[in-house]
Amino acid sequence: MIARHDAGAQRAGRPPVTTDSGIPVAPLYTAQDVAGGPDALAGRLGRPGEPPFTRGPYESMYRGQLWTMRQFAGYGSPEETNARFHFLLGRGQTALSVAFDLPTQLGYDSDHEMARAEVGRVGVAIDTADDMADLFAGLPLDQVSVNFTINATAPIILATYLAAAERQGVPPDKLTGTLQNDILKEFLARKAYVFPPGPSMRLAADVVEFATGALPRFNPISITGYHAREAGCDAVTELGLTMASAVAYCEELTGRGLAFDSFAPRLSFHFATTLDLFEEVAKLRAARRLWHRIATERFGAANPAAARLRFFSGNSGTTLTAQQPLNNVIRSTVQCLGAVLGGAQSIHVMGYDEAFQIPSEEAVTLSLRTQQIIALETGVTRTADPLAGSFFVEHLTDEMEARAADVLARITGSGGAVRAIEQGLPQRWITEAAYRTELEVATGQRPKVGVNTYTDGGDDPQVEAFELDPGIAERQITRTRQRMAARDGAACARTLSGLRQDANEGHNVMPALVEAARAGATVGEMAGVFRQAFGEFREPSPW
Amino acid sequence: MSGRPRIVLAKPGLDGHDRGLKVVAMALRDAGAEVIYLGLRVPVADIVAAAVAEDAALIGISVLSGAHLPLAGQLLTAMRAAGLEVPVAVGGTIPPRDADALRQLGVAGVFAVGTPLPGVVEGVLKLAGAEAAAR
After folding, report:
1. Is ipTM over 0.90?
2. pLDDT in tens, A255-265
3. DSSP conformational letter for A100
4. For chain B, which domains are there?
5. Which of A273, A327, A444, B44 could bridge across to A339 with cysteines, CB 3.0–4.6 Å?
6. Is residue A274 classed as helix, strand or coil in its secondary structure?
7. Is A435 within 8 Å of B22 when comparing Cβ atoms?
């Protein structure tokens, strides 16, 4: 019904042309649009690998090393997910990224009454360190980098991973990878929180503090705006909220007496890359510059690596459509290109069938091939930050940085990220933005091919069906019960009471968690100690 | 009873994807319905209790974890046990093959991802309105 943007109509005072975030876009950009002229711009850019890192965190960028191709994967039992990991690595994926099922994310064992319907559905079911060992069978953990999308139970899952690595004979200082461990964005958007914000911040900081000594090659947190974006906000708000979260974690850690320069080099970040190509590239460049400014001005970073932002880009699932699902391959290609032009260290490309199900092997292979074709056939990797100096992109980068800094200032003004989240302020921004976007799609103001234009009469979507084995929950429960029966119950109980004591007395919980995981304690038992000690969070009303 | 249908919305199970259900809640509210939004991880017994207490004309749930069949089944069982007879609408990542299975369970309306927002609002209000008229 809608369709063509009529330039004449726009000149006649129709809606102004803007980016997705509402930044006005002129028909043409020239040198006059780059603030301060060429010398000032050179100062804002620097060189790749040098402050303020606008042009990239490393000098040689993709000539030196391609980004890590890391498809998010997990379903069913540890064995099934292990098989998919081997499948992906066999097709040229260069690292792993684990999706956990909801009971694991929320600290319930598979036999809990809240868990039964959800075991193995959106990720792999992990109840014990034995499960974690099975998950990585045949995958040497000193050679493969692993990302864990885990938050409320991040310290527990890290403990089971350390126990599994120990059984492979791999010491902690050889482990590489990333633990998501960003609880603030769970309250903001992703909603897999368990404990209230205060104790949750403490647990996240316990992990970072522990890792700063014990896991020198591992990223103990991935501070993310991705989920707020997927839940509905725009790119400007995404960047501002990410920085507000980063400030909150850094204040928590420096408040414990940790030196900023000691932990900040291992902080990592996570952004969405959606379809507004130039705005997304500008956002990613602006993110590096803004973080450098915050790290140096607010936290006094002296070590350049402490002000160097590295990030993972997940392509956007909400830009994909159930209608005409093959169109999603094209959307994902553009998003992957945006992440590359923005200088990502690691990328996930969505499966075209994710509106319906966990991606099929065909879909996930196509996602990986998308990355490989961009990396090997397009030539975009030949030089660092190829869009630098574009009048338009530099203008957008400046705008994005300034507007995101305004969002950060609003959060700071309301008492910081934790306080703002407790009041529900950013959650309301996100929900209202999601509603506006949906109305724009409904009225046709926001074109969506196959949805509100070029619908071809509304064909039924057809995708290859992915079937989850219906016996998974029963098998997982049986196995966990067998393992609990086989462990030394008294020794395990002693580790749990040690954990309880450390949780109640404010000690770092990581050493006691590692002891408990080694002794065969379950994820539900360890989370149960925290539930007792900290209580559970209920979200304030969204309106 | 007033002309505004009362609709109870909730997310059962453990899934936290609430963007869709909140958008639907706001659209139903703007279309004149009285919406009672119960939030995340709501046990089915609590959904039934809220629907009885609020004299709801419809219960809407949203599931994006793939657990729509067992969760809808649990809800309908709990409703039967409580003697509650109101239409149930289910939204979420529902493959076409599961839409029929949900209807066979007794779900009155299935709104899978990809259903345009006006279609969801119209469908839900029609089901709720028919229920209110039958009382």
Report:
1. yes
2. 999 999 999 99
3. B
4. 6-133 (3.40.50.280)
5. A273
6. coil
7. yes
